[in-house]
Amino acid sequence: EAGVAQSPRYKIIEKRQSVAFWCNPISGHATLYWYQQILGQGPKLLIQFQNNGVVDDSQLPKDRFSAERLKGVDSTLKIQPAKLEDSAVYLCASSLLRYVGGTEQFFGPGTRLTVL
Amino acid sequence: AQSVTQLDSQVPVFEEAPVELRCNYSSSVSVYLFWYVQYPNQGLQLLLKYLSGSTLVKGINGFEAEFNKSQTSFHLRKPSVHISDTAEYFCAVSPSIQGAQKLVFGQGTRLTINP
Fold first, then answer.
1. Site from A31, A58, A107 to mutate, B interface, most B CB atoms within 10 angstroms
2. How far does A30 lie from chain B, in Å, by closest CA?
3. Residue A65: pLDDT above 90?
4. Considering only Cβ atoms within 10 Å of each terminal Cβ, which end of chain A, N or C, has fewer?
């Protein structure tokens, strides 16, 4: 089966500019996650969707980050305006079910963002 | 809340030698435990997971891990490593509560295999 797709793979912007990342999960996966992975750290969950509804966005900096998952399939994560500390890899993951504990999350290759 | 500590940021080993990557966690509730591997410029891939039952869990690529509840540890082992095992390894936990799938990751251990 096809994996989680993300684009672009790399993006370089200047601070205060806007940027958007796109994710297409594995077909049939109801749950979608966006993670931020800063260099030298483990991934940190930004937001979790169940179908097209938000389940957890407690760690999303809502003053500058936004995300949507229209029609419960693909998703877009936006940063507006970007700051230097937003430089990171943004990972998208999906899983089949939310309510079954231990369900495997499948990760995309990530988008590496550099803010200058 | 949960937290994960990976005790070594880098582990260099020679090819065909055994390796152990250490992971300790903290949680006020029961947890599920995971090890993920990240190859350069790729996303994370699940190596193995502990949900319940036998505390020794076997995963892909010859890796295994042992859950130790009293020591709150979940160390990853491989008896003989290969050059292709060079990657970043992440330990993660999630609460074993219905509906809670939030993964909390450790900071990662970079495994370097030398010929």
1. A107
2. 13
3. yes
4. N
What are the pLDDT digits (tens) for B4-52? 999 999 999 999 999 999 999 999 888 899 999 999 888 899 999 998 8
> What is the per-residue pLDDT across A5-40, written as a single tens digit (0 to 9) for each?
999 999 999 999 999 999 999 998 989 999 999 998
Nearest alpha carbon to residue A95 among B55, B101, B11, B98: B101
| Chain B CA closest to residue A36 | B105
User: Residue range B85-94: average pLDDT?
Assistant: 95
